[in-house]
Each structure stands twice: as structure tokens, then as C-alpha cells.
Amino acid sequence: MNIYRKTVEYLVSRVLGGAETAIILGSGLGTLAGELEHAVRIPYGEIPHFVHTTATGHQGNLIYGTLGGKPVWVMQGRFHYYEGYTMQQVTYPVRVMQRLGVKNLLVSNAAGGINPTFKVGDLMVIRDHINMIPNPLIGPNDDAFGTRFPDMTRAYDREFIRMAADIAAARGFSLKEGVYVGLTGPSFETPAEYACYGRMGGDAIGMSTVPEVIVARHAGLRVFGMSVITNEGYHFDDDFVNDGADVIAAAHKAADTMTQLFSELVGRI
């Protein structure tokens, strides 16, 4: 617990006030941070026990500010298992947030669509996940955070999902709902893998998010998740290729709509 205390003490020394909501922004989705008022931006490299993000489209800042009229912590970029970090390093910020008094976690990511009804630019509310990444709770349990065997029946908060649907209806934009499949990466999936996870019940697929959600639920945080569909993994002609730059570009195009939804959702919770 000493390492968490050191990080928390540092962050408290940099900002005045607390927040009950934190947001983790995925690839190409960091523009939401520009909507924060009274923002205090802290590069990850200055925060004790935070690692560096090396992924494209992840700016690497922790920001404290106001969104939707409420104070929030925003991670402008996350850490990934494929970067060579341990699962404890990947999920370390979530436990820091819990120690800072955060009760709600909103997570976002760029994901490949494996549901054939999904198109590039769609927003998918995550209602469940399939975890194919090493579980971050493996090892001795820290009872100060949660129980040895945390329940994942409702990992994604049903009330938050209903609120998001209401906001989308009022704003006049459509939302998908589906199951997110979390893989290690960093290679994109083969056509056979896309098809396999689709048959398993997956709707979108990516390389993040699930470890953070597991640790958040272990620590008692309420979670809302959203994927931006940045490529379509269900039809493959001779010219098809997955490209990281295309993923970032597609995420940027959908970021404004996601920002509106997140801002209103933060204001309601």
C-alpha cells in the first residue's frame, strides 16, 4: 500500500479538490480532454509509479478538471499489456483512482467490429466482455481493495447503460450495444480469429479495457464502457489490411459524439 500512498499524496499535492468520476481515454480519443475546464495536466512521467505509454494515439497525461459541471480525473491514454508492462502496472492507475475517492469509472477504446451490423464510426456501449488477457487479480489478494473472488455478473453498470441510451435518444444519435473481446495484441487478429470470437458471442475486439474493468469492479467502482468501431473485421477482400493509422483516424472522427455523451453522463452520475 505504500506505493499507492506515495502516488496519491503526490497527486493531492498537485490539485485542489477531489472527484468521484474518472475517465480512461483510448486510442485516438484523447480530444475529450480538451473539453475540460480549469484543467491541471500532469504528464505520466512526473507521477510516482506510473509508467510511460508508448502506444500511438495515447498522449500520456493525467488531467484533473471539470466536465459536465463536475470534477473528473481523465487519463489521456492508458497502459497496455502488449507494451511489456505487468498487469499490475497496466491497472495501477485504477487503484490509485479508488484511493483518491473515485466511485465511477468510464472507459473507452478503439475496437474492431466483428458484428456484421457494425460500421466504422459506430459507438458501442459495452454490456459485457470476454477476457482473453491474463487476469490482473492473479496473485495474492489485497483485501484492502476487494474480495478474493469478485463477481463479474454485472461488470458494466446497468443504470449507466440506461442513462447513455436516454442521452443518445435525446441527442438524436444512435448507439450500439455489445460484448467486447479483450486480447493481448499487439498483432491485429486474423480473419479466422475474428470469425472465432464472433461465434463466441463477441461484437467488438480490442487490446485493452478488460483488465481495468476487472480491477475497478474488484475495488467496488461502478463502470461504464464504450468502444468506437474503427475497422470492420467481417469481410476480407484481396486488398484488405488492418492499419494502425486508419484506426486512429476513425477514432478521431467519432470522438466528438463520444465526448458529448460522456460529458452528459458525468453530469448525471
The span between the termini is 29 Å
Q: What string, H for helix and E for strand, traces the elements in order? A: HEEEEHEEHEHEHEH
Query: Any idea what the radius of gyration is?
Result: 17 Å
Q: Helicity range of the residues? A: 25-40%
Strand proportion, as a percent range, falls in 15-25%
Largest sheet, in brief, is: 5 strands, mixed, barrel
How many alpha or pi helices?
Answer: 6
Report the structural category. Answer: alpha/beta
Shape: globular
What number is the mean pLDDT?
Answer: 92
- Neighbour order of strands in the largest sheet: 5-8-7-6-9
How many β-strand stretches?
9
Low-confidence spans: pLDDT under 50, at least 5 residues? none
What's the short story on this structure?
It is built from six helices and nine strands. By secondary structure, the protein is of the alpha/beta class.
Notes on the structure:
The chain is of the alpha/beta class. It contains six helices and nine strands; from the N terminus they run αββββαββαβαβαβα. A five-stranded mixed beta barrel has the order 5-8-7-6-9, surrounded by four helices. Strand 6, helix 3 (158-171) and strand 7 form a beta-alpha-beta unit. Helix 2 packs across helix 5 and helix 3 (158-171) packs across helix 6. It starts with a helix and ends with a helix.
